[in-house]
Amino acid sequence: MRTEKDSLGEVQVPEAAYYGVHTVRSLQNFNAAGAPVPHEIIAGIVQLKRACAKANRSLGLLAPEKADAITTACRKVLVGGLADQFPIDIFQAGSGTSTNMNVNEVIANLANEALGQPRGDRRGVHPNDDVNRGESTNNVFPSGIKLACVALHTPLLTSLDALIVALRAKAGEFAGVLKSGRTHLQDAVPVTLGQEFSAWARALEKDALRLQMSCDFLFELGIGGNAVGTGVNTPRAFRAAIVRELSSLTGQPWRPAEDGLEVTQFMTDLAGYSAALRCAAADVNKLCNDLRLLASGPHTGFNEVTLPAVEPGSSIMPGKINPSICEAANMACLQIMGHDHTVQLACAAGQLELNTHMPVIGANLVAELKIFTRCCVMLAEKCIAGIAANTAVCQRHFETSLGLPTILNPRLGYDRVAELVKESRRTGQNLRELVLAQQLLTAAELDALLLTSTGPNHD
């Protein structure tokens, strides 16, 4: 062990640790979550430290040898292999001070080591005065969350696009499969199975647009604003210099906040992105519910599609196959909605110049992004790609649907069609059989009428 000292007194720190006294105190105080801050947020904060060091160097605020040692230490952290040095619990002080200081200490000690100084020696690279120079947790942590979300955004859109492509492929494959539509879970006018898949794909395309639009706000950073966003103790050029260095390091178009106080107090940029993700999860949840209904049966349900079998469905009923992938996706979507609810509550819970719930906001957002990314890939590959249409069943439901009389109204009139419906119920014959038997329409005329009944989207 080594002895380190802060304003509260001396603390014993493991000799091998790159973290220091503040981290040890936090480990003694916080353990409610039982899980550390996600490494994506740690990586975002480290990127910010790296950019700040370069900005401080360019403005003559940090000695070149210290700045270079800090940037080298940041690169070492980003390469990986030091995850055990960032153990702070998610549920900590609401601005994330423990995590910010944890990062500061690790970087400082890595830098000291590179400069030939012992770990914990603050006479070399100091965690507050050097690594945290011109910074405050109040803008470091929320900016770190934004960097984490942006890093996860592209994989998320890629997986969502894969799901959309799979749905579009099935929409084309099933374009000619006529079936009964349903509203209120009751028979409605005809649609094609392809139209149902196309509608799902379009819903997710709109979700992708909402995610992209909300992501734009994440590029506005409060870094350099210090305690309340005013930039106290920093030169006017500092914020622009940080963003310039960060953009160069990451290849992303970061920009300084238009109002430093606003971006420090309000976490709405994060809430908006989470809300867009919740909407996407809601749509995926809905289409999974639809698929479970359409695949229900096979003998006592709709049985209009067959989902790929991925596992035996029951430990007691031989031969039973369940919609396991859809159910797993349902649960993933519900979990995402739960994470989002926490994000919305936490974003609304700030007071005056600061939101004090940032670690839980960040942890839940990262969880949402990672769950949804995996969920979309699973659904596309394990379910959508292997769906088959039960065309004969769809045709039978279409021909016996109570929505079919609506299609005949313009040609035969309401009263005549009503009589046909009564006769169908009495005799058991479907409307097609009755129309043809009574020579009200030819087979070609009826087929043409039914084909156009699904509207202009029918190919």
Describe this structure in words.
By secondary structure, the protein is mainly α. The chain has 3 domains: 2-133, Orthogonal Bundle (Fumarase C, Chain B, domain 1), CATH 1.10.275; 140-173 and 191-219 and 259-390, Fumarase/aspartase (Central domain) (Fumarase C, Chain A, domain 2); 402-454, Ribonucleotide Reductase Protein R1, domain 1, CATH 1.10.40. 59% of the residues lie in helices and 7% in strands. The protein has 17 helices and 8 strands. Strands 1-2 form a two-stranded antiparallel sheet. β1 and β2 (9-13) form a beta hairpin. It is elongated and about 100 Å long. The protein starts with a strand and ends in an 8-residue tail after the last helix. The mean pLDDT is 94.
| Portion in strands | 5-15%
How would a textbook summarize the main sheet?
A: 2 strands, antiparallel
Helix content: 55-70%
Using only CA atoms, what is the Rg?
30 Å
Number of helical stretches of at least 4 residues? 17
Observed structural traits:
3 domains, 17 helices, two-stranded antiparallel ribbon, Fumarase C, Chain A, domain 2, single chain, Ribonucleotide Reductase Protein R1, domain 1, two-stranded antiparallel sheet, mainly alpha, 7% strand, elongated
